[in-house]
Amino acid sequence: xxxxxxxxxxxxxGRYDTLNHVLSxxxxxxxxxxxxxxxxxxxxxxxxxxxxxGDFLLAARASxxxxxxxxxxxxxxxxxxxxxxxxxRPGIQADALQLPFHDASFDAVLCGFGMRNxxxxxxxxxxxxxxxxxxxxxxxxxxxxxxTPVSRFFYGAVAPLLMPAVGTVFGSSKEAYxxxxxxxxxxxxVDEYAALLERTGFVESRIRGFDFxxxxxVAARKP
Length: 223
Prior knowledge:
223 residues
């Protein structure tokens, strides 16, 4: 992630949760609840990568799948400042392409809306594979390049007007939400992303689309 993108997330950190819920009509909460269902039953030591304010880890906790020693890591330090108020221990500022964790440190890795922001998606996937234990699960929740008629219309015609406007109304950065739309349209389609994970060394990729393809969960396992 470039320094400019990191600084952008630091600037919008105070309004990030509110705007996520508003822009998704609170569907982001349901997407996370469903996505953590791909994790193994029972407590796991989880890395919530690009975890920001910790909502993905909270969803895993609510499902009974979080074990002691779970960690939130994010490149943008200010994004993680709300963690203690949510009952999560302070996060670790980390570059997803050079994670400060030993090999095979985690039972599972979650990444919500973060892989799209990495400078090199394949290198990020390789780092995640490295820090996972054998048999561990990686769950991505992401806005992939639109492929369905509904998602093409939404991200092509609605989102470029709606997202920057809502960001401005809530006193956030218009430029940040213009970047959001650009990054979605420039990212991989979901099937190409799953294929990239398998080339990296993951197996058993599973894809689930939400709301006519506006968002997808992708789950894969380390052999």
